[in-house]
UniProtKB/TrEMBL annotation:
This is RING-type domain-containing protein. One of its GO terms (molecular function) is zinc ion binding. It comes from Dimorphilus gyrociliatus. The lineage of its organism: Eukaryota, Metazoa, Spiralia, Lophotrochozoa, Annelida. PANTHER family: BONUS, ISOFORM C-RELATED, E3 UBIQUITIN-PROTEIN LIGASE TRIM45. PROSITE patterns: ZF_RING_1, ZF_RING_2. Keywords: Coiled coil, Metal-binding, Zinc, Zinc-finger. Residues 15-62 form the RING-type domain. The keyword Zinc-finger applies. It comes from the Eukaryota. Residues 148-186 form a coiled coil.
Length: 316
């Protein structure tokens, strides 16, 4: 606590029993100079602790004291604490009165500030009193009105700059967002165009591959059909005996064996082979012969043919 430049430790104003400030609690001082609240001393007496009969021990220094005949109120009041209380109340009343009258007071010395109000620009303290002027003799002082006006102007200028910067930042953000949106749309458009182009090329290629595959498949089917037809004809030929004129009936197996034998004998022509058959029938038989397959002629047509009698002879 500070009163007109004098300072007291807070613990010196505390009650040794409740540890609260005794300034506003009717402080009573014991002969040992320790001060306690009146109510705390009364409680100590009522509880009967620290005393025997009419004596008790100081809760702080443990010295023995006698209870006054008039009780706890018989202890004298602490005049310093009473004076501090009165001074504090007067200062508080003065400040309250000044506030009610719209007067400015020094917050340090609780005295009325000088008029016009003065501000220390170095310490940033306002409402200086006469004592403050002495303490701030080396500082830069200025009337409060002028200082307040400059302060308001600076604050307004700073607020305008902040607003300008905020507006510029908002404009930049809007511009960046617009550019970003435009770039995104452009990229999306290019991607979509490339997608459509690639899809078209892929579909075209697939169509070409499908047509080529269909053509190959159709060709293979036709070839397979021809092979199947040829296979059926071969099966018919293999299951049918061949009849040669005259009265010559040979199986396919016999013909194959004859062919192999002829090849082994390296016979280059078949005229001699057929001449032996001519001698048997008494005349020349053409080399080419009509083959009868299942009763129908299937061989080549020849210019030279046998007579009816020869034919009858062959049949017999």
């Amino acid at each position: 606590m500070s009163i007109d430049g004098y300072f007291l430790p807070v613990q010196d104003l505390q009650c040794g029993i409740c540890t609260e400030s005794f300034v506003n609690n009717d402080p009573r001082m014991l002969p040992c100079q320790h001060t306690f609240c009146l109510n705390c001393l009364q409680g100590l007496k009522d509880k009967g602790k620290h005393f025997s009969r009419n004596s008790f021990l100081c809760p702080v220094c443990r010295k023995s004291h006698q209870w006054p005949n008039s009780g706890t109120k018989g202890f004298p009041k602490n005049l310093l604490a009473t004076s501090l209380k009165a001074t504090y109340q007067s200062k508080t009343t003065a400040v309250s009165s000044a506030s009610e009258r719209n007067l400015e007071n020094c917050q340090r010395h609780f005295q009325q500030a000088i008029n016009p109000l003065t501000v220390c620009k170095s310490c940033r303290q306002k409402n200086l009193c006469l004592k403050c002027l002495t303490e701030h003799a080396t500082c830069s002082l200025e009337p409060y009105d002028k200082f307040s006006q400059e302060y308001d102007e600076n604050r307004k200028r700073i607020q305008e700059k902040v607003k300008l910067y905020r507006d510029n930042i908002n404009d930049e953000l809007k511009s960046l967002l617009s550019q970003l949106k435009t770039a995104f749309n452009d990229v999306t458009k290019v991607v979509e165009e490339n997608k459509n182009r690639l899809e078209g090329e892929i579909m075209k290629k697939l169509g070409s591959c499908k047509a080529e595959a269909d053509s190959i498949l159709s060709k293979q089917e036709n070839e397979f059909s021809d092979l199947k037809s040829a296979e059926e004809k071969i099966d018919i030929l293999l299951s049918t005996k061949l009849t040669f004129y005259p009265s010559l009936s040979l199986s396919i197996g016999s013909l194959r064996r004859e062919r192999d034998n002829e090849q082994n004998r390296k016979v280059t022509t078949g005229a001699g082979y057929w001449s032996s058959y001519s001698n048997r029938f008494g005349r020349n038989i053409p080399f080419d012969t009509r083959v009868i397959l299942n009763g129908s002629p299937v061989g080549s047509q020849y210019s030279e043919s046998c007579t009816s009698s020869e034919t009858d002879k062959m049949k017999s």
